[in-house]
Amino acid sequence: MTVRAFEIEGLLDQAPEGIEVLSLDCFDTLIWRNTHAPSDVFAEIDMTGGAVEPRSWAEGNARRRAMARSGAKEIGLTDIYREMLAHASEDEVEAAVTHELTLEARHAFAFGPVVALMREARRRGLKIVIVSDMYLTEPQLRAHIGAAAGEDVMALIDQVFVSSAYGEGKRDGLFDHVIEALGVAPDRILHIGDNRAADYDAAIEHGLHAVHLAQFDAESASRLRMEAATARILDPLCGISRPIAQAHRAAVAMRTCNEPTYVLGHDIMGPAMATYAHWLKAEIDTASKAAGKPVKPLFVMRDGYLPHKVFDALYPEVGARTVDLSRFVALRASIKDEASLGKHLDEWSDTLPLPSLARQLMLFENEYARFAKAGSAETQSAALAKWVRGNSDIQRKIFTRREAFLKRLVAHMNHVGIAPGDTVMLVDTGYNGTVQNLVTPILAETMGVSVMGRYVFLREKRRSGLDKRGMIDVRNYDYRTLHALSLSIVSLEQLCNVSQGSTIDFTATGEAIREKLDRKATHNATRDAVQAACMDYVRAAGNAVLKAPEADDLDSRCRAATAILARLSFLPNAGEVSVFERFDFDYNMGLAHTETLVDTDRGRNGLRRRGLTFYNDQRPQFLSAELQAQGLSMSLANFATSRFKLDLRSTDFEVGGIQVPVILAGAAQQGVMEFTAWPTAEGYYQLRVPVGEQRPVIAVQLGQTCEWVQVEEFGFIPLENLKKGQSAATVAAKATADAMEQMSPGLFRASPTGVLIAAPPEGSEPMVLSLVFRPVVARAATVQLRAAA
Q1: What is Dmax (Cα atoms) for the chain?
Q2: Quick one: pLDDT band at residue 788, thresholds 50, 70, 90?
Q3: Are 455 and 471 in contact (CB under 8 A)?
Q4: CB 722 within 8 A of CB 604
Q5: How far is the CA of 521 from the CAs of 43, 264, 498, in angstroms?
Q6: Burial 574-595 (b: 16+ CB within 10 A, else e)
Q7: Which tens digit of pLDDT belongs to each residue from 504-539?
Q8: pLDDT in tens, 453-471
Q9: Phi and psi at residue 760, in whole multiples of 5°?
């Protein structure tokens, strides 16, 4: 019988009749660690180069020596340190043993549901024993349990059996000693543990009733491993001299719903947002003490919506409020003179469409309508900007309207509880703090309000000099890492925000006026479900932990939260991608236009045609989600390249190509040349054939390599585009297939003489013919696919 962690507490209701003894494994059943792996505890042993590997090697060597010398299958902690510290005195060995026991105690906690099971067993009159495969002595193990669970829990335990005392583990003969010492029939004992072989198979073989505790479902176990891998990639000290902390493991084990949307909210956003709330409370307390008065936290909408809900649930006494300060209104408020107006036009005239740019400048429709006839969208905004720069009258109107807008902005600040002279903390997801940059001087001028900012993630390209900090910032990660994390920040924003349009103005009394935004109903429902699951985690996370361990401090939680969010950004799983496919996003700039967050079809087709170079032309908002279907190797390549800013070129990925003969038939001469087709993705290859001024007819002899072939693309790319790293746009070739029978769109059955012919492109510009194909069935033995040299 296998049960999940959330089923443990009521397990005795399903136990066989006549059970007299509840037998429990210790580690990862009753006593858990707040680290990813048991060996993470060794990272805190002070040793040059890190102690994790030497400590593990020493244990392996000690076991081999014990087996060779006496046939003993179990050892003690002292034996391990005698092996590890070869020339140490006995006093030094004992000191090292004591130190490791102290480190184990720092990370240990009792799993709440198992303790509840023990209390119920005691109520029913059952005897309780601990049976552990461990190198600790019985007194050491008793002390460890008592420290982690409390002496009241230790008092529930009648006997402790540890393998080091008997020289045998559960899979060898430890259960025989247990049965003999207890003096009961094996079928009167119910044993529970997390190791399938030792706690279930071995117990059954010895006649006990047994239950296998599966801490995590397969997806959760995989995700936790990826979080640990992410922590190592982000921080080279993780797993070396710093344990990989995962304090959320117990809460993840207790989750009952496996629906991907719920999992995303509970297991990822839950611990990340709860940690941010705890970090934020510490920041508020520190800032309030320094200011000599309460600092008022204002969660910036829209992205501050979920952080506010979590913070208010954990710290309702603070009285945190939300504030509607979008980039749109902050930029509008910043246009105070000709210099700031010019700066605004420089930045936004080639980005915003005409109506949005004009509205930000507080222009009326009759004032800008004529520019709607100025050609393309870019031309329209540029024409408006040129007119504004040269028209002093319209500039005066803009500055006058800005003054009226400031009064409405102040009214909004009053509306959310801010008075003149207050100190406020703007709280947001990040990552640059643009709103804080813009409103800090404005609020100081209009209200005498001091502003600081706190973010989930902060990465400033230019130092603002303002009071800014992030839970994830330069204090703990370098700029390359922070920049890599910023690339998919929109995924975090979409999970945190609320279904409302961007704020574009305020009423005279300070209520927000928002852009009407036509969002998909599925997007709203999905986000709501993610956020509800996040709140479930926040409310129940502590239930699985009897008493938090000493090592469960704010710094370790912040590092774990970083690994959680970074893993989601770079190594999302298929279930998470399916959730993000339902999301649309806008730029919070007063634009009603939305875009799909993840377009897996576009990514799949682009990767087939170009491989990773497809993303040279344009990087999507959530690249990792589009790469996920290509497998972990592709995702890790993207992660490592981004994190370490590796200088990798497309040619570095060209391996395993195949040679394809190509006929070039020009006016003066013709011949056959072999070109290399390089793999892209999903079994596709790209063949590139240069085309110069002579413009030959090109016939690709696909029949010599393929019996069946799938053609994905056959077209021309300007050579100049390739030099610039731009290869997405292709002009379809005028194609003819000879001795190739089309069986379905793009799928051909080719005879050995089958060719795909491209008529010459027009003009004289240097071009490259791009053929993307997949050999569905290779030509039989006599005509092999030839590996490229």
Answers
A1: 100
A2: very low
A3: yes
A4: no
A5: 48, 19, 13
A6: eebbbbbbbbbbbbbbbbeebe
A7: 899 999 999 988 765 555 668 899 999 999 999 999
A8: 999 999 998 888 999 999 9
A9: -60, 140
DSSP string covering 16-78: PTT--EEEE-TBTTTEEESBSSGGGGGGGS--TT-SHHHHHHHHHHHHHHHHHHH------HH
The whole-number pLDDT of residue 512 equals 92
Provide the whole-model pTM: 0.90
Which residues fall within 8 angstroms of residue 390, CB to CB, at 6 or more apart? none
H or E segment to which residue 149 belongs: helix 138-149
Closest CA to 359 of 501, 508, 512, 515: 515
Residue 514 CB-half CA count within 13 A: 17
CB atoms within 10 A of CB 681: 21
Model pLDDT, residue 724: 66
3-state SS assignment for residue 3? strand
Residue carrying structure tokens 């998470």: 576
3-state percent helix, strand, coil for the chain, nearest multiple of 5: 50, 20, 30
Residue 281 in contact with residue 275, Cβ under 8 Å?
no
The residue to which tokens 């990340």 are assigned? 272
Separation of first and last alpha carbons in the chain: 56
Contact criterion met (CB below 8 Å) for 408 and 324: no
Helices 377-389 and 392-415 pack at an angle, to 10 degrees, of: 100
User: Rounded to whole angstroms, how far apart are CA atoms 92 and 81?
Assistant: 9
DSSP type of residue 760: P
pLDDT at 616 over 70: no
Decide the pairing of beta strands 747-758 and 706-718: antiparallel
Q: Which long-range contacts (CB under 8 A, 24 or more apart) does 102-105 make?
A: 103/41, 103/42, 103/44, 103/45, 104/33, 104/41, 104/144, 105/144, 105/147, 105/148, 105/549, 105/550
Backbone angles phi, psi at 442, to 5 degrees: -70, -45
- Strands, E assignment, 173-318: 189-193, 209-214, 296-300
Name the helix (H) or strand (E) containing 456. strand 450-457
- For 103-142, give one letter per residue: b (16+ CB within 10 A) or e: bbbbbbbbbbbbbebbebbbeeebbbbbbbbbbbbbebbb
Tell me the pLDDT tens digit for each residue of 67-126: 998 888 899 999 999 999 989 999 999 999 999 999 999 999 999 999 999 999 999 999
Helix (H) or strand (E) holding 748: strand 747-758
Amino acid letter for position 581: E
Q: Which run of H or E residues covers position 577? A: helix 574-580
C-alpha–C-alpha distance, residues 570 and 578, integer Å: 15
- N residues, the chain: 789
CB atoms within 10 A of CB 444: 12
Count of other CB atoms within 10 angstroms of residue 154: 18
CA gap 734, 303 in Å, rounded: 49
Q: What is the DSSP string of 410-427?
A: HHHHHHTT--TT-EEEEE
Residue labelled with tokens 């492109």: 761
The tally of CA atoms less than 13 A away on the side-chain side of residue 672 is 7
Tokens coding 675: 């070109």
Calpha distance 223→229 (Å, rounded): 10
